[in-house]
């Protein structure tokens, strides 16, 4: 992937109000596979039931949540479900590092998050796809954008014609790329995201295909998917009570049930989670989700510009 010459890395946060942004229609075949490590309609129903079952007295001592649906090693064509793509948002940066651990010592609840990429044509795992993720820290701030307040609305006057905001610094925390293995899987060591103005808790991602690693970054290839993944409100509510998340009082977190982008993505875009130590979120989580792409599709990118009618 070529380096973004127009937007050197800076510091700020992603205050873009995606909750009012309509999903961008895609001609790609992008889907989330039900079964395997992903969540289907039945899985998310079970997830909600487990996650909301009798929270304990403190946020750090909540009954263990096992939201993983299915468990099969693979997926069949009948389990493939098309889903809409989502906007890139204002704070995407190219030339991110190829690395597993993207934390850079940012404080927060540890999260080992596994993406499994599946070829929509075959519903088989896709090897050597580049999973590219970025998200805010526990205080709602994005790496490369630390000068932008997470408690203020997105300012379109600072964006280019594609809705992209130039970075404010060269920080790179909570950004990175991993290539999928023979099982189509790529795992990141990160933290559970915080939140910022107008949005629910989420992680952005792109899936690139056809390129290669060079100089520690991913080069060439094309984008096969642009999307976002989400977390159940029950989990996000419990973690919001823990430090350092509890210190973020400048803006209220939008519920997933009230986030237009999250609702348009559907339940299959909600990450399946397990507590590392049953009964405690503070000890960390493991998460998994399956994302399907058509690796041969090269449609236009989903833009980051909010609709003109956005309130």
Please explain how this structure is put together.
Helices cover 8% and strands 26% of the residues. The protein is built from three helices and eleven strands, in the order βαββββββββααββ. The strands form three sheets. Strands 3, 4, 7, 10 and 11 form a five-stranded mixed sheet that branches. The protein is globular. 52% of the residues are buried. The protein is mainly β. The N terminus and C terminus are likely disordered.
Summarize the structure.
This protein has helices at residues 41-51, 233-240, 260-265, and strands spanning 31-33, 80-82, 110-119, 124-125, 130-134, 175-179, 185-191, 202-214, 217-230, 272-277, 280-293. The protein is mainly beta and 311 residues long. The strands form three sheets. Strands 3, 4, 7, 10 and 11 form a five-stranded mixed sheet that branches.
């Amino acid at each position: 992937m070529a380096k973004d010459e127009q937007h050197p890395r800076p510091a700020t946060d992603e205050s873009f109000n995606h909750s009012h942004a309509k999903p961008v229609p895609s001609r790609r075949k992008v889907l989330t596979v039900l079964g395997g490590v992903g969540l289907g309609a039945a899985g998310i129903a079970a997830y909600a039931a487990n996650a909301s079952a009798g929270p304990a007295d403190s946020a750090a001592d909540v009954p263990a949540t096992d939201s993983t649906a299915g468990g099969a090693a693979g997926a069949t064509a009948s389990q493939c479900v098309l889903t809409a793509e989502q906007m890139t948002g204002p704070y995407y940066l190219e030339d991110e590092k190829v690395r597993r651990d993207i934390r850079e010592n940012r404080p927060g609840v540890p999260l080992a998050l596994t993406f499994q990429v599946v070829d929509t044509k075959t519903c088989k795992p896709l090897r050597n796809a580049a999973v590219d993720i970025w998200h805010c820290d526990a205080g709602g701030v994005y790496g490369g954008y630390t000068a932008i307040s997470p408690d203020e609305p997105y300012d379109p006057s600072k964006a280019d014609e594609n809705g992209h905001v130039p970075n404010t610094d060269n920080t790179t925390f909570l950004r990175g790329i991993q290539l999928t293995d023979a099982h189509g899987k790529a795992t990141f060591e990160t933290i559970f995201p915080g939140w910022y103005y107008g949005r629910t808790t989420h992680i952005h991602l792109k899936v690139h295909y056809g390129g290669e690693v060079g100089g520690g970054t991913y080069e060439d290839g094309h984008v096969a998917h642009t999307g976002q993944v989400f977390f159940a409100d029950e989990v996000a509510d419990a973690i919001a009570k823990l430090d350092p998340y509890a210190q973020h009082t400048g803006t209220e977190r939008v519920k997933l049930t009230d986030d237009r982008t999250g609702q348009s993505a559907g339940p299959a875009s909600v990450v399946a989670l397990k507590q590392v130590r049953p009964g405690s979120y503070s000890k960390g989580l493991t998460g998994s989700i399956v994302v399907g792409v058509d690796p041969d599709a090269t449609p236009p990118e989903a833009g980051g510009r909010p609709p003109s009618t956005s309130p």
